[in-house]
């Protein structure tokens, strides 16, 4: 199943039915990290040749632009084969979407943990909703090194 706003644009090449089904099949595999039922989801895919006169090298490109409620995601790949370019751009997009989904899940978990601590009475225990680095305390007691160990402070 594909989103309602799904546009494919071909530049300097012909968009064959085989290429269109390949694009749709590769994009539909992103259903694990992207909600296709979201009404604000807009997908724009552009495939094409960068030049008309070159035959060797990275002449085919694929570009994915995804706009959703979580933000805008973009990936681009230039390869010597159109199918490889599409696959690489899709893999790059999946990595970015997965990273954003992980950030969202961790934010929700931190928020829930903060609410739970507030209900228990620990008001300042885990309220770290801002992007402040966390430092874990060791499970054993550490002694701070004494001044005499520092050879430069003699």
UniProtKB/TrEMBL annotation:
<dbReference type="InterPro" id="IPR036567">
    <property type="entry name" value="RHF-like"/>
</dbReference>
<protein>
    <recommendedName>
        <fullName>Ribosomal subunit interface protein</fullName>
    </recommendedName>
</protein>
<dbReference type="Pfam" id="PF02482">
    <property type="entry name" value="Ribosomal_S30AE"/>
</dbReference>
<dbReference type="InterPro" id="IPR003489">
    <property type="entry name" value="RHF/RaiA"/>
</dbReference>
């Amino acid at each position: 199943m594909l989103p309602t706003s799904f546009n494919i644009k071909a530049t300097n090449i012909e968009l064959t039915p085989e290429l269109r089904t390949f694009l749709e099949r590769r994009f539909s595999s992103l259903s694990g990290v992207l909600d296709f039922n979201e009404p604000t989801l807009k997908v724009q895919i552009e495939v094409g040749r960068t030049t008309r006169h070159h035959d060797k090298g990275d002449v085919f490109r694929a570009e994915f632009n995804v706009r959703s409620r979580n933000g805008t995601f973009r990936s681009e790949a230039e390869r010597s084969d159109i199918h490889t370019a599409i696959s690489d751009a899709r893999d790059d997009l999946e990595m970015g979407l997965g990273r954003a989904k992980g950030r969202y899940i961790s934010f929700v978990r931190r928020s829930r943990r903060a609410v739970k601590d507030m209900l228990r009475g620990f008001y300042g225990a885990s309220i770290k909703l801002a992007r402040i680095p966390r430092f874990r305390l060791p499970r054993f007691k550490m002694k701070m090194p004494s001044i005499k160990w520092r050879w430069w402070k003699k």
